[in-house]
Design goal:
mainly alpha, single chain
């Protein structure tokens, strides 16, 4: 087997795709309704907000940081959308305002991390609570649901008469854009360099703090976009929309092969992981598995996504070390029958 093919097969992303195929086969075998257009629509619709948020979070984690406030930004965006609509604003003005609010929320995270030097884990745990609290301040515990059909159809309508949800088309476009930026531009190479060795990246001339700041801004803006999609898909703006969604988003990013320590990952792997999680949850739901078990499955996948790549990397390193030891010729002198060295 060629070395490059063997290297591709050994990648974590390949395992994720294999597990996705296994999950699809399990769904087909265990649930008669799994392989239907209606179920495809339901499966993809259930994970589309997770998928959208996972794209910028991939950049953040590859750069060696974390953003746990993404689901709260989604809820804040939903609450702000509902409050502004309730106040009589035109939707054409509300959507840019909500996206701007998400970018500001991300900018606050970026400033606290890059300018004050605070750890992103602690910062975004704090803003997770802050932004969710702001959502309840803005909208309270009520729901706003009287949105125009032309907007709600963007959330739960289908594309060109197919069973493909409109938000899935949006995600596909974003995935192509984010994938191109990460893997084909200097921005992406800079993100990888920062995550692999921040000190070396700084000495090589990269504006590390500025890059990280903008990664948080984009994460906030795209999370707000996911909040808009979520609101239109359920035709309901609520302050508690998306509660707990950050667990699934982080699980998908790490399960897709992105290293929690930064410096490694692919958009393709994350996309495969999103649909792996969605397929597993959908198949289990069709088999009448409770929501509590689905939460346990999500947590288990998160643990697996953290431990699996680390263990796989250690196994590969150990095998490589043993191959090197076997390949090194003996340095002991060869003694001739006469007693001298050859």
């Amino acid at each position: 087997m060629p070395a490059d093919l063997r290297a591709r097969l050994a990648r974590w992303e390949t395992l994720t795709v294999f597990l996705l195929l296994v999950a699809v086969l399990y769904g087909i075998a265990s649930a008669p309704d799994f392989a239907t257009g209606e179920n495809f629509n339901a499966l993809t619709s259930d994970v589309v907000e997770i998928a959208i948020i996972a794209l910028p979070l991939t950049f953040v984690i590859i750069a060696g940081e974390i953003d746990l406030s993404v689901a709260s930004v989604l809820g804040l965006a939903s609450a702000l959308l509902g409050a502004l609509w309730d106040a009589g604003w035109a939707m054409e003005l509300i959507i840019p305002a909500v996206l701007l609010a998400g970018a500001v929320a991300g900018a606050l995270n970026g400033v606290l991390v890059t300018r004050l030097g605070l750890p992103s884990l602690a910062v975004t745990i704090g803003t997770l609570a802050l932004y969710r609290g702001l959502a309840f301040v803005i909208l309270g515990d009520k729901a706003v649901a009287d949105f125009p059909d032309r907007f709600t159809n963007l959330g739960f309508g289908t594309f060109a008469g197919t069973q493909i949800p409109n938000p899935l088309v949006l995600f596909a476009v974003l995935a192509v854009v984010f994938g191109f930026v990460l893997h084909r531009t200097t921005i992406g190479r800079s993100v990888f360099a920062i995550g692999a060795n921040e000190e070396a990246a700084r000495f090589s001339g990269l504006r590390v703090k500025r890059i990280k700041f903008w990664l948080f801004v984009v994460s906030g803006a795209i999370s707000a976009l996911a909040g808009i999609v979520f609101t239109f898909r359920f035709a309901s703006a609520r302050a508690d929309n998306g509660t707990g969604l950050e667990l699934s988003v982080v699980a998908c990013v790490l399960l897709g092969g992105v290293s929690i320590f930064g410096g490694r990952g692919t958009i393709a792997g994350v996309v495969a992981a999103v649909f792996l999680l969605g397929t597993i949850r959908n198949a289990l739901t069709l088999n009448d598995v409770s929501a509590d078990v689905l939460t346990i499955v999500t947590g288990g996948l998160l643990l697996f996504s953290v431990l699996g790549p680390s263990l796989a990397r250690r196994v590969r390193e150990e095998l490589a070390r043993r191959r090197e030891q076997t390949a090194v010729p003996s340095t002991h002198p060869i003694t001739t029958p006469g007693g001298g060295e050859a």
